[in-house]
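I would like you to sit down with the record closing this message with an eye to the fold:
=====
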Amino acid sequence: MASVAAIVAKDQAASLGLGTNKNPKKYLNQDFEELRARCLAARSLFEDPTFPAAQSSLGNNELGPDSDIVQGLEWKRPKEINPNPQFITEVVCRDDVLQGMLGDCWFICSIASLTLNKECLYRVIPKEQNFDTNYAGIFHFKFWQYGEWVDVVVDDRLPYKNGKLVFDKSATRNVFWSALLEKAYAKLNGTYEALSGGISLEALEDFTGGIGEFYFSFNPPQNLFEIIQNSLKRGSLVACATQSATGKEDIDRHNVVKNHAYTLSGAEEVSYRGEKVQLVRVRNPWGCKEWNGPWSDKSPEWDEVDKTVRDSLRVVAEDGETWIPLPSFLIEYCRVDICHLHPDDICSSENLTWSLSEFSGSWKFGSTAGGCTNYPTFWTNPQFHITLEEPDVDQPDGAETPLSTVIVSLMQKDGRRKKIYGEKSLSIGFTIYEAPKEMPHNFHLGHEFFMKYRAVAHTDSFINLREVFGRFQLPIGNYVIVPSTFEPFKEGEFLLRVYTEKKAKALELGYEVHAAIYEPAINANPDAAILNGAAPSHEEKDEFTARDLRDVLNDLLSKREEVKSEGFSLKTCKEMIDSLDEQNTGTLGKVEFKKLCKKLQFYGRLFVEVDANVSGNIDAHEMRNALHKAGFNLSNRIHDVIIRRYITGNRAINFEDFIACMMRLETLFKMFNILDTDKDGKISLTLSEWVCAGLI
């Protein structure tokens, strides 16, 4: 119950604007202004108890206590390292960020990309911070995390060894913004070691809240250069990476570092000997070791380029940055990462933006963890409906119908932090179906639909990355996106985002809640029957207590072989009375008893139908189908609560709990309908009324 309340509280906070960049959530409930004020009042420097200057903040393996890197390591504040420390300068640029002894080149080159967009940079790094005015040894940074912004506080004690910073550092020795930014990101992910190994796209998204896509050089789209060029024009942040068979940062004959991440900062076409040459500009985060082949800084190809163009593009310096022709780039580099900025972002171009729809969701055992299309439970996964109403401005040649470009991103949450505890990321993917024209509004598609129709698009494979994506061109129309793990019953949380060039409508399916409760007609004379069996003699009784119900119903159940049950408990019998006791007597009269028997007959048939293997239990994921057949259209959140309340140790629901659930739902719906006097789908309760309602 507390977890459900927490979810509701989160939804309410989001509706009030908490979690935006201007009003971020306080990470670990640490308020920067409040903590700094305390330190200034006490004339002390901040020491962060949640990410201390200790081994626990470094790591357990690569940066474990026995590793060479941490031997002799100290923690020093910038004022102890340099007599005139600066937080950040006005002339900050991509050359200002250098990698240290941690394998986080992916993160460092993402910082370098961030410096290309100053608006984005200063949303992550609040500018008012310094080592002079109101200095208290405390700094803060803002990161996007799965749909919301968080403000992360750190102290300024940095790992130091042999006269220099151990990890990220600035090319200007007295500038410390990037080192402190790296520390804040390490805190967000658990340890410094958690940053070892990754892809640039991850940090780019966490810096901007943008949506990512990536391409591999072994199978690039024909228009990759145009995608890169247009992305840079939009203000998107772009990075690239190399790979190595040895897994080490080897340097090849063209001076390209393998198994390494780079920033991609430019894409231009130049005229050379009467032909167009496509060039991309890449930067090594080391600030050195740059491409030395054709079109490098001192390459003779530049001598045959128009002087104005040459002077505007070429910079001859050993700064780690140079131009490389696209064919050579596709040989040397294995991957391109592109982060498109949020369409409402002040950092993005006013003319070239995207339309975004995003949803937070989860895969929960028994309710929404359906696995991929290989499994019959696939239909239980969360489903999202999108309507593409407008085609792209630029249509591909030969297109028979108007097409709309769609980028779908599926991101699983907290992978790096889980890695610290030995947990593996889930293998995730998504599938897209054309929605049926006869589809009712907000209707969760069932098993029959997915058996009948084939997908129109999907991820190439299920993979255990933080994020998978797909770029598609789909005809104008309605579609359903189904995100899933590869195997069923795997639990996790995710963020689904859909970008389109034009406006699109999107909503989560199955979010509306309503019920068509089975209400049997009761004849005046005949006795009711349960599960095709006659009820025992009870003519002498005018009222049935919970004990009477237990005795009568359990006697009957003992004679029914098709229902494997140990009988109803007194608690469940009280649930039955609560649902049908219209006079509030705590008992059931004869007519109410007959009505109950009819309901049990109806629900009993459903249970037997779903219990295909006649085990006396139904699987948790089959409960959703049973609820639907019983007339209950419930949201994913309600399904999850039901499973967690009624599931047993063998991950199934027995007959008694099935009946108890049905009767409880009937009571809740009836109670709401009575209280919803103006029929607007909302009720208002005092605390006393709420507690009473919850106890029924």
Remarks:
- The radius of gyration is 31 Å.
- Residues 502 and 627 are 38 Å apart (CA to CA).
- DSSP finds 19 helices and 31 strands in the chain.
- The domain at 529-695 is CATH 1.10.238.10 (Recoverin; domain 1).
